[in-house]
Automatic annotation (TrEMBL):
Identification of the protein by name: SGNH/GDSL hydrolase family protein
Disordered: annotated segments: 1-23
Keywords: Hydrolase
SGNH hydrolase-type esterase domain location: 213-406
Sample GO molecular function, one term: hydrolase activity, acting on ester bonds
Regions of compositional bias (Basic and acidic residues) in chain numbering: 1-15
Pfam families found in the cross-reference section: Lipase_GDSL_2
Keyword set includes Hydrolase: yes
Length: 435
């Protein structure tokens, strides 16, 4: 099989000549989402956080590393122009197994595989749309890393990205999609933001399915160790991979249940980030702390915190819409945040009245009988002697986000028996167990 055409080849890639496996021909395989990074609109230079990306890319290759949760016989990638105002052009794309662990995107397997779109090497991603590639014959293991390289030959405004990837991305001059080792000489740059790449699917046996972690920066992994895959969904993926279940991270730093800012509100992205993930059967919903904490800070100076009733209504809509698609919903309590962001311009993130609202909301999440199950992240992370504050050993140090140890504790708190249940049985449970 020809893995990568030379630059002078025609744009059409020859069809794969590998025989179709009997099990796949019999319809015993399907696609499941194995990795994701939720798209966000790029904000202006006047916002509190920098984008960490240039405003325009041209004649450059973007190389990213992603750790799969579940492996499979074939893979395909998903690109997003969700917030773009014009089509963006892909000149060439490649995928390879990452040879050197630890997220070094400049060092990959020498066997580069060309990625095509409708049989073509080049493709356009329409404004507001996403683009799914053709399948690539590349057997991959669960919890293995893949490197995806995208060449952008024309001026490409960066309008859609994932801001906090916690993984090194390289942007280098020219078309380097066929290179195992990048030439990172100037004017190359590295960043932890993720442009364009939003998903990776794998083809597996018919029993494989996906769990989505829908959340904010605590799910996104804002303080996770760089290039080490230590977000709580990463740790959950390690627990579920032997069961044939994938975990995809739909966390967005700054995300809120009811309002837009660093990403659209949870209901507005539910279809794209959850329901369109192939194989999805369950969702862990861990969002709402920014709805409570942001108002009154430099991020939302003149906003008032939402009412408890408004938050309840938002959760009810999430669950109603997910249940309408046969998806099981595990609700997560909001984690302690006293002392959050001290010494920064956001040190008014915590206020006693906000803590009171968090406590009321958590009590309702635990006892309101809305969710199919509840995981008590608050109980996992809080200091028993000071329940409004995160336990020091599990704290990243900013008193809002857990460190790696805290993320591991969160992942271990989820009951695998709950996550692995048949969806239909959980839509009308006799009782609502709590992991």
């Amino acid at each position: 099989m020809k893995h990568f055409p030379h630059q002078e080849d025609n744009h059409r890639q020859p069809a794969y000549d590998r025989p179709i496996s009997p099990s796949r021909a019999a319809g015993n395989h399907h696609w499941v989402a194995s990795w994701s990074a939720s798209p966000q609109p790029v904000w202006g230079s006047d916002f509190y956080f920098p984008t960490n990306l240039p405003s325009m890319l041209r004649e450059q290759t973007v190389r990213q590393v992603a750790r799969l949760s579940l492996g499979g016989e074939r893979v395909r990638i998903v690109l997003s122009n969700a917030h773009g105002t014009a089509p963006l052009h892909i000149g060439r794309a490649s995928i390879a197994r990452t040879e050197r662990l630890g997220g070094h995107a400049e060092d990959t397997s020498p066997e580069m595989h060309c990625v095509t779109f409708g049989g073509e090497v080049q493709a356009s991603v329409l404004a507001g749309a996403m683009l799914v590639s053709d399948p690539v014959e590349l057997p991959v293991d669960s919890l293995s890393q893949l490197t995806v390289s995208l060449y952008l030959p024309h001026p490409t405004p960066v309008e859609t990205f994932h801001w906090d990837g916690r993984q090194t991305t390289w942007i280098v001059p020219g078309d380097q999609t066929a290179r195992g080792t990048l030439d990172t000489a100037a004017p190359s740059m590295s960043t932890t933001a993720r442009p364009l790449l939003t998903g990776i699917h794998v083809e597996r046996g018919s029993s494989a399915r996906t769990v989505v972690a829908l959340g904010d920066s605590i799910t996104d992994g804002a303080t996770a160790s760089l290039d080490q895959d230590t977000r709580w969904p990463d740790f959950l993926a390690e627990r579920l991979a032997p069961q044939g279940v994938a975990v995809v991270n739909a966390g967005i730093s700054g995300a809120r249940l009811l309002s837009d800012c660093m990403g659209v509100n949870a209901l507005a992205r539910l279809q794209r980030d959850v329901l369109m993930q192939p194989g999805v059967e369950a969702v862990v919903v861990a969002i709402g702390i920014n709805d409570i904490g942001w108002p009154g800070t430099a991020l939302a100076r003149h906003q008032a915190p939402p009412s408890l009733d408004a938050l309840k209504a938002g959760y009810r809509q999430l669950v109603t819409q997910l249940h309408g698609h046969g998806v099981r919903v595990i609700g997560a309590t909001l984690t302690p945040f006293e002392g959050a962001m001290q010494g920064t311009p956001l040190d008014d993130y915590f206020q006693p009245e906000k803590e009171a609202l968090r406590g009321q909301l958590n009590d309702w999440i635990r006892h309101g009988h809305l969710f199919d199950a509840v995981v008590d992240f608050d109980a996992v992370l809080r200091d028993p002697l000071h329940p409004a504050r995160m336990l020091a050993a599990l704290d990243s140090g900013d008193h809002l986000h857990p460190g790696d140890a805290g993320s591991l504790a969160m992942a271990e708190a989820l009951d695998l028996g709950v996550l692995l249940q048949n969806s239909q049985a959980w839509l009308n449970p006799p009782s609502r167990p709590t992991p």
